[in-house]
Amino acid sequence: MKALFLGAGASYECGMPLVFEFTNGLRANVLKRLDTKLFDFRKDPSFRTRFEAILSDPDLHYEQMIGELEALQLRRDPSSEIARLTALQLVDCVQILLLEDQELTTKFFAEKAKDYSGIKAMLAKHRCLHVFSLNHDINFEEICKFHGVQCRDGFFDQGVDRYTNIANFKSLTKQQLDNGNLNLFGPEGLGVNLIKLHGSLDMFAVEDKNLYLKCTPTAEAPIGGHVQEIRRIENHSVELSQRVNLRTVGELDVTDKDGEIQFLRRSLLSGAHKFKGTFDQIAPIAFFEEFKKRIAAITDLDVIGYGFGDHHVNEVLRQWAEASNVSLNIYDPYRKSIPTFLDDVADRVCIFNFGLTEYFQIFDPPKKSFFSSIRSKMLESVRENLRKRRLSLWQDSRDA
Q1: Can you give the pTM of this predicted structure?
Q2: How far is 227 from 258, CA to CA, in rounded Å?
Q3: Residue 179 β-bridge partners
């Protein structure tokens, strides 16, 4: 049985940034706002300098920055509380900037999505395909929708009436999560089971984590429909915050159909202490447990765009790879060697130096023509310009 495992590199060709590429923009945007009300250092003004040093360290990417703040919180000294609040606000910044990236690349992605028609041909060979993803973006959902592929993510299609004024949602209750009752295809089903391990831009917890909501676009919505639903929530929250002159961290303040204030807690999971139980976590642990359970039945795993930087994931992969009947294929344009934790099973690990686009073209080879060649070069040029733009944000902030 085949499955895919997706990291940030899988979304790179769609316009989304790699880790350090995204960090450049985050660092530049946060540093220039340290003297605004975005962060509150009034109880410990000296912490601003410590935070600035973390942000300015060129060797740290954004998850490591959050990890540094988490480590300061765990010291349980007078700076612990401000470190906690600063980490929460930084994760909020990550969510906001990722959403902006998703919006800014929508037109590019709408064209690029045409290159992933191989998903349909792949399903002809592998009727029930598990896709495990670490990505917060909603690109794979959009790819499936664009190509008419059924995709289930564990959430049930019925929404909750009290929140319909905010956005279109699917829902999943805590009881369903605890019972392992997820809306996924069975072995005889035809479609994609998408299991997102680290939360998502469009996933929120509400009612003390007894209910989870996930944005869903209307059936007729074009690519970008997911983003529009998330933006509706953000705009709703901004309007309410401005009206009551109050802003919370780590959650969006909204009002339901009855006018009651509700708090939609963001699900993005980031930092150095994922799934350790050290910090409150919004992304449901049940999805990670589902990953561990379902990977046991996989014999052929294709890992696309993952840098093997998450220890909790690597441990699962290491244990899975010990089975003698499994094989692992790594798709990464730049990787030359296998991760050291897989050295003992190196004979069953292969590396291919290309990404998601060429991967799907294996299943549906494109027709070669002069037009297709020009189009491909244009898309590569646009993608390279996005990379340069994000790099220049950090360079401009240093020169300012």
Answers
A1: 0.91
A2: 25
A3: none
